Amino acid sequence: MSTDELPDDYIGLSLVEKKEYVDTLDSEVNELSKMLNEIRANSPKNLLSKTNSPFIRYPPGYKFKSSAPMKIQKQKILTMCTFYQGTDRNVSVATASQDGTAVCWDASGLKYEAFRIGKGNLMSVSANQSGRVLATGGLNCALDFYSIGEELKRLSADPEPPFAFPKQTIVDTEYGRPAQFRLTLAGPTSAVTGLAFLDDVKIVSGSQDGGINVFDISEAVKIMDFQEQVPINHIDNGTEYVFCSAGQDGYLKVWDIRRKHEEVISINTSTPLSKALFMSEGHSIMTSALNNLFLMDLRSSSTLETYQSNLGIVSDFSISKSGRLAVCGFDSGIIHSLDVLENRWVNLIDNRKDVISGVSIIEDKVFCSSWDGLLKSYSPE
Description:
single chain; about 375 residues; Methylamine Dehydrogenase, Chain H; 5-stranded antiparallel beta sheet; 4-stranded antiparallel beta sheet; 2 helices; globular; G-protein_beta_1-5
């Protein structure tokens, strides 16, 4: 302890009083250490025990069977997301390809929407909570929104043109029909590397220059921005106000749009982070960096667990709602399951021989995309 941390009257205390003061500090430190150890020991168990996820029905070592692969894109699939579409909450998948197209699929592999995005590789894709708006971002340094149905028209609060935002009628030559109502928002000054909807109309974007922007698509305006000094590699939503960012500098940061221009929590992993996902209970986040996964506790701002692999660089991963299962895709083409509670790599799900670009667990299915242009789904045997 430095002298700057001692009370002003410490020097004047008697030896007995000094000893009592130091003993009190030691007791407080020990109590804090005990609390931290309890969080480290119990948090994953608490996290995994309170759930009704379909995956909890299966033991950690269960195996997967795959569907027939869908040859869905002519070039590399660079990113993907899963979502629930419409009032029926049907499981859907959106893929974004190097050829500048985004495609929506149902769980059986039936294509029901397709959009020609334009120039620039797509690096991020996200759907809003109702599954009626698809957002894409990439090297065009802008956010493009496409309606699945009439959603953007409804959000504009104007049933007839002119819209509150520029309407662009784009004839899609590949799929032979006009694109749906389209909204383009400028704001990012470099490639958009991360997207996450906070609710049906608010979306957060992260970009290569460190910019983090929050947009309201119902008003077609930027409502807030945060500025980092390093590339943002991924954005994930926690609540309608809270989101996290994974930075190239190794920092995991949690932000609250009610607290402008200031992160709420910052944890340094010292390794460039490629992705971050909130666990379902909201107190923990799992991140990926090189060939490792990290489970972070937000209450203690510490790392609860490190999951190491020798399967390659983690290119994407997803977590089941229970928190017990993680599925990881690697740049080697391997897809592998991880028992989060036991810190054990369980089963080889597939070896695609090409970089796995997207992994997503939704209900009792796992969807994986890769640079070979294929999308496959996997279900427990």
